[in-house]
Amino acid sequence: MGALRADDRDEQLLSIGQLARLSGLTSRALRHYHRLGLLSPDKVDPVHRRRYYSPDAIRSARLIAALRELDVPLDDVRTCLQAIDDETALTAVLTAHGRRLSARSARVRGSLHRLDHLLAEGDISMALTEPEESARAIEPPDQRRLAADLFNGVWTLMEKEDRTRDEDDRMIHMAHASRYHWEAVGTPANLARGEWQCSRVYAVLGRGEPSLHHARRVLDICRENDIGDWDLAFAYEAIARAYAVSGDPQVARDYTEQALAAAEDIAEDEERALVMADLETIPGQPRFW
């Protein structure tokens, strides 16, 4: 079959109104996207300036409609159109947009939360006043004491056999608060131990994903700051425990082996024994040491 003549091709073109009906976009939007160079017509009537589109434009127009419905920025829409047949590229763009939407949602929730507090006070003028003297930053010695007290309080709650749901929540918040204060006044070792405690709290509560997140942060901090000895051993222990809680005993065993190897380099016998005893409490792990 020979190539289509120009007249035949013109007969197959869609008017802007037809494309609008088939794609879900309005004619006004299609004209706007033409001006932006996002979706150009195949033919423009030189007299009446009417726009005509190839049937192939339907797919692109529908993609534009779907992406704009999701508030995808125009630059990202352009990227998607250029990679319309590359599912990996499209997924990457949409994943990045999803992260932006999540961050935007968090900011909105935070603003609503602060607004609720402001309205609850009953005096909006309070927001315009200078902070009171009591609102000044905590002095470093007091902040270190607070971080340590919170850390110890978490241990007390973890060891309690009949914790209530409210006490579980309090334990989580105290662990994070302790880690927060250590960031201001502590050493890298304090940060690693704060992350470790967060990981252990989530492991105690059977929440594998956050436990693993904080366990990995322990290992990151140890590696970034050349921290070894028992902190490094406990980093591997935390990851092993998190995987065990998550239901992955084989990976848990692999990290337990790394914890055992790290424990061999612990200088103090008492601290090595502490690590070994803790490893034995990892759920579902065989006693092979």
Condensed summary:
Helix content is 69%, strand content 2%.
What integer is the average pLDDT? 86
> What's the story with the biggest beta sheet?
3 strands, antiparallel
Q: How many DSSP helices?
A: 13
N-to-C order of helices and strands: HEHHEEHHHHHHHHHH
Which structural class should the secondary elements be placed in? mainly alpha
How much strand content do the residues show? under 5%
- Poorly predicted runs of 5 or more residues: none
Radius of gyration: 30 Å
Number of strands: 3
Strand arrangement across the biggest beta sheet: 1-3-2
The percent of residues in helical segments reads 55-70%
Q: In one word, what is the shape?
A: elongated
End-to-end separation: 78 Å
What oligomeric state do these chains adopt?
A: single chain
Description:
By secondary structure, the protein is mainly alpha-helical. 69% of the residues lie in helices and 2% in strands. The protein is built from 13 helices and three strands. The protein has helices at residues 6-12, 16-23, 27-36, 57-69, 74-82, 87-121, 140-158, 165-185, 188-204, 208-224, 229-245, 249-263, 269-279; strands at 14-15, 43-44, 51-53. The protein has a three-stranded antiparallel β-sheet with strand order 1-3-2. Strand 2 (43-44) and strand 3 (51-53) form a beta hairpin. Helix 9 (188-204) runs antiparallel to helix 10. The longest helix has 35 residues, at 87-121. The chain is elongated and about 90 Å long. The termini are far apart. 27% of the residues are buried. The mean pLDDT is 86.
